Amino acid sequence: MRILDFFQPLYCIVCQHRIDPQTPRQYICTSCWRLLFPISSDRCCQKCGVPLISENKFCVRCRDQDFSFTFSVSCFSYIGLFPEILHRYKREGSKYIAWFFADILHTSYKLHFLNLPLVAIPSSPQGYKSRGFHPILRIMSILRRKYGVKCYNILQRKKSTEQKLLSYEERLSNLKNKIVLKRNYNFLPPHIVLLDDLFTTGATLQTCSKVLAISGVKRCDVLTIAVV
Ligand SMILES: [Zn+2]
Ligand SMILES: [Zn+2]
After folding, report:
1. What span, in angstroms and rounded, lies between the C-alpha atoms of 110 and 198?
2. What is the pTM of this model?
3. Mind listing the pLDDT tens digit for each residue in 51-64?
4. Structural domains of the chain, count
5. Interval between CA 18 and ligand 1 midpoint (Å)
6. What is the CATH number of the domain that holds 109?
7. What distance in angstroms lies between residue 12's CA and the mean position of ligand 1's atoms?
8. Does residue 143 lie in a domain region?
9. Is 39 in contact with 51 (CB distance < 8 Å)?
10. Digit-coded pLDDT (tens) for 60-96
11. Which residues have C-beta under 5 Å from ligand 1, the single-atom ion?
């Protein structure tokens, strides 16, 4: 047993009720788990990871979208209890929620991206200032320590306008020249996986994958906790 395993909670991270010790699931009780929607289908949009119903290969949003990344996987749909859990994590930085996300991400990572290095999507300076921590880096450090995943924190984001209400195109122009490599690297891995919390429009992921492509990365894939 590793050190981190000693700290796994006895109580549900959502409702605080005691978790039945017989259940194989950690962090979330059975009732709350029923209100989460993990993506397990083999038929997902290859660009954003959303489950497909009748479409082929790409969802309506991505059909005409020319993303620089190749393939995207998400662990949950952004519905049910998920928005509340993510919101709480970003507000409070709960280590238990970070561990829950790390475990969920690692399951998808093993299935789709085994041995590939992860690159963190950088927080905006405003986000870091208001929270005092970097949500993705906190999860990444668990993936590195607990599972030995190779992780890079090589991208930096400069101050830009709040993105929430902007369209995909507006977000792209808002992010123009706002995401850069922290410094010049002599060697970057040829194939990396970008790690972010949410796939919303794909604009931030697109900007990051373009920066990495210009810097010599041949292929970027994407892993997110949830897709909107
Ligand atoms: Zn619960
Ligand atoms: Zn899609």
Report:
1. 19
2. 0.91
3. 998 878 889 888 88
4. 1
5. 8
6. 3.40.50
7. 5
8. yes
9. yes
10. 888 888 899 999 999 999 999 999 999 999 998 888 9
11. 12, 14-15, 29, 32
